[in-house]
Specification:
homotetramer; 202 residues; Arc Repressor Mutant, subunit A; Tetracycline Repressor, domain 2; 2 domains; DNA-binding
Chain lengths: 202, 202, 202, 202
DNA sequence: CATGAATGAGACTTCATTCAT
DNA sequence: TATGAATGAAGTCTCATTCAT
């Protein structure tokens, strides 16, 4: 009856400050919610209901809200999660010996990743820009490095800018989604983009 | 930046081909609703309310519902309208003397068109596939012709299929939206796609 | 633009003052509306829409409203119409030579009449008491006479009062409706009521 | 006028047999909703609003909808409840030593019951046939038994069929409602029906 | 006078969020 | 702490009635 409304300290995805370690069962519940949310939003789009997420997770709504104070927050957590995966892809590519191979790899693996959570991306797409900022910045940084190297090596045309990369990624995402069911489609598309990026040799 | 894609002024005389000869004022109202809807959905996304559309149109909700029995139906009408504009672009391109120029033109003008109703497209995106079927089929047909000609003329690589065009269009749409505010971004993107499409000369 | 809202003088069912004679086409329209209303309310119950009535009548809603200023009013007109038919039955029965035969006849014919517009009665039932007052009074009067005669002739038990007749009529109506499809049911019921009414001979 | 039909006090413990073990407070709320609905529908007829029911129950609309997903469902629950009370009457009558007394009792007590929720019945009447099927079947069964016994004992005319009972019940209901305010009316009516049912002794 | 498009209060229902158990 | 019942603002849609054409 006293400080009940004090901010619940449970959300480890909070981008400011060090995430507090969760008790084992709390972490398990958080994961369950996230998985259920992924499924449900993928199946029903962004208008899916929190109740359904809770049911799928085998938990009460209250528990979902304990971990994610808002539907928005849950969706954002999913987005962060997704960008973290992309980040892994991009940062690994920095280790590639050949700069162009690294960049090329990012496109392919990102596309593959996007095919995984196609439906989910669709559900989150419109908000994409105002969300998961931290992860997006890091992704941007990795991209800049990859691009600069590839350009220095002469493999990529010089007029492309780092800020073009998110544009490319988004367009790949769109292509993957629109290819629904026909991977050859987006395969061709990614090839085409890669070709387009290669430096023109006059 | 040419005036190629000057916003079509929503010609109120061609929304309906044969269906019903609407009374003059009814037609005017229908157009008002459509315009208001475009604005509102662009501003607030797909979750905008019909009441707002009505208010913006200066009409009662009832009138909106008389013309579009469902929110869905209104959104679909908007989609049809959009695809009709793309259709005009594509069909005009069929008249081009040079096949590749025709196809290239379609990409550019479509992108310009998409920049017009960027926000609106975002609002409609997820449903795009189950909607405006008739228009989409005609668009597909025009696309097929353009592509075949361009391939025969040797300007476009042979492995591209007609079904790749929608994928390309969608990806261009995504690129345009993601470029928000920076046209050079998607300009570069469209160039890149065009380059990628040109036949490789070994 | 001036006295447009002056009371329209069209409604001949207005119980006060002499009904103004209608122009031929106006009368025809009124009749059409009434017939359509009978059908529609019978089919869909009291919640049917005026638009449907208008459509069925082959007229615009405006015309319906010209004749019946209110949905209520239309329903009442139907009720009046129904009670007028019952009235005819009762008044004819006054001519019967045998008092009991007359009364008996009223029960049977009323039941038959009710079977006709079973669905319609159902739609109007709940309001029955506050409507068609004039007709109901006349019906009551005829009933009183019939009953008194029959009682004087010794055919009907003395404790029945004139006010019991509407109760009997309503119960017959309910029986008829509940017999839906099985006339023998309500036949038996009417017989039972008649038997119950005969004077007990100890 | 005896105390035979003292209003059953809406026993909150027997509304649901096996379906779901409701939490104590949930059950209490369900009962509150049902009571409020009874009142409101009785007062305002079937077109009463759910919001009013909720307000009367001192609960939010959402709670009403949690218990009854539809206005229809709420009305049906009320109907079931009503038939359950009639069922109790009929099944108790099966214990009567004298068959005719048992049947007679059913008519009287049913009428008394109907006087209780006169207004409510009026509100539900039209739908009565497609609703509360299970309860109506059991009622029918009890009725059949009562009738057969009474016929075997020679107290009731042989040509009456079990299926006539619902017809009789409905007609009694109509009579009770139409007697509004004058119990002697429907008393006389029930007597008359009972008399009509007695076997004719030639 | 007839027509049917327009109106908008108000109905039903949903669902994110809170809170008692 | 977890649960799920309760809440009620808000959204979609209907339909009796009005009024410009």
């Amino acid at each position: 009856m006293s400080d009940v409304a004090a901010p619940l300290p449970l959300d480890p995805s909070d981008s400011q400050g060090p995430p507090k370690p969760l008790r084992a069962d709390a972490r398990r519940n958080r994961e369950r919610v996230l998985n259920a949310a992924r499924e449900i939003f993928a199946e029903q789009g962004r208008d899916a209901q929190i109740d359904d997420v809770a049911r799928r997770a085998g938990l009460g709504v209250g528990t979902v809200y304990r971990h994610f104070p808002t539907k928005e927050a849950l969706l954002e957590a999913l987005a962060i999660d997704k960008f973290e995966r992309l980040l892994v892809i991009a940062e690994r590519a920095l280790d590639a010996s050949d700069a162009w191979e690294g960049l090329r790899d990012v496109f392919w693996k990102t596309a593959e990743q996007m095919e995984q959570d196609r439906a989910l991306s669709e559900a989150m797409a419109p908000d994409a820009l105002e969300v998961a900022t931290a992860e997006r910045v890091r992704l941007q940084d990795a991209g800049r490095l990859l691009l600069e190297r590839a350009q220095k090596s002469g493999a990529v045309r010089a007029d492309v800018e780092p800020e073009d990369l998110p544009v490319l990624m988004c367009s790949i995402g769109a292509a993957v989604r629109r290819s629904a069911g026909n991977p050859e489609r987006w395969h061709r598309y990614v090839e085409l983009v890669c070709d387009g990026l290669r430096a023109r040799t006059p």
